[in-house]
Design a protein that fits this description.
It is built from one helix and ten strands. By secondary structure, the protein is mainly β. It has a single domain, classed as Calycin beta-barrel core domain (Lipocalin, Beta Barrel), CATH 2.40.128.20. The chain has a ten-stranded antiparallel beta barrel with strand order 1-2-3-4-5-6-7-8-9-10. The chain is globular. The protein starts with a helix and ends with a strand.
């Protein structure tokens, strides 16, 4: 009987002293709705824009995106991760045109909203804002807007609706 009690107490002690699993908080899963293989279409669903594949990496601490346009002439990759120390999501995007985006933000009212500044070819600072919205029918809307006046007025860069392939 003493042996059984010692085993049980040892198990309880081991479970209570176990290290927390990295990147397992609720916040780390906020962008999981974007995981998978997708085909992007225009809002009317008639024109295919490209394909996207997003998967977890680094022991579920990050998410890698791989985009290819329908023409095959444009591709890009992003790395997304939750920065627990700052309470924000971060995205680093690079593409085959030499472009890059550095975005940060949070999940707000069911949408992931990330934004950041970049310098355009003409030297003007542009504020980019991208919003991902999971829709009831299983699609995800990605709406990219840009502002040259620090968010006073916005122009549309991309408005895609993603249909899951798997």
């Amino acid at each position: 009987m003493k042996t059984v009690l010692l085993i049980v107490l040892s198990l309880i002690a081991a479970m209570s002293s176990a290290e927390p699993v990295p990147c397992s908080s609720e916040e780390h899963t906020q962008f999981d709705f974007w995981l998978g293989k997708w085909t992007a279409y225009t809002a009317d669903g008639k024109t295919r824009q490209g394909t996207n594949h997003l998967h977890k990496i680094m022991g579920n601490c990050g998410m890698q995106e791989n985009w290819e346009s329908a023409s095959g002439n444009f591709s890009g990759t992003s790395y997304n991760f939750y920065m627990a120390s700052r309470g924000v999501w971060h995205q680093t995007w690079v593409d085959n045109s030499g472009g890059r985006l550095l975005l940060e933000g949070r999940k707000e009212e069911g949408e992931m909203v990330l934004q950041g500044n970049r310098t355009a070819a003409d030297g003007v600072t542009v504020l980019d804002r991208i919003t991902w919205t999971p829709l009831e029918d299983g699609r995800v809307r990605q709406h990219w807007q840009a502002s040259k006046d620090d968010g006073v007025t916005w122009s549309e860069v991309f408005d895609g609706y993603y249909q899951r392939e798997e």
